[in-house]
Amino acid sequence: MKRDSKIPQFYTTDEVAAMLHLNVQTVRLLLQKKELGGIKIGAEWRVSEDHILEFIRDHENK
User: Fold this and answer.
1) What residues contact 60, with CB distance under 8 A and at least 6 apart?
2) Domain range list for the chain
3) pTM for this one?
4) Of 24, 26, 29, 34, which has the fewest CB atoms closer than 10 Å, so is most exposed?
5) Helices in the chain by DSSP H: which ranges?
């Protein structure tokens, strides 16, 4: 069975914080409050590129 979808790129909270120019604690809080989408693997969060883009779209000035 062939899949056309590719595996999404995931980023750590440190990487997301650097991309968005935020503190790592802020990123973790956003994840806990479900304002930023992500998945928790063990004790660590991972955030997909799609979740980052959605967060940016939801928080842009209109």
Assistant:
1) none
2) 10-59
3) 0.84
4) 34
5) 13-20, 24-32, 49-59
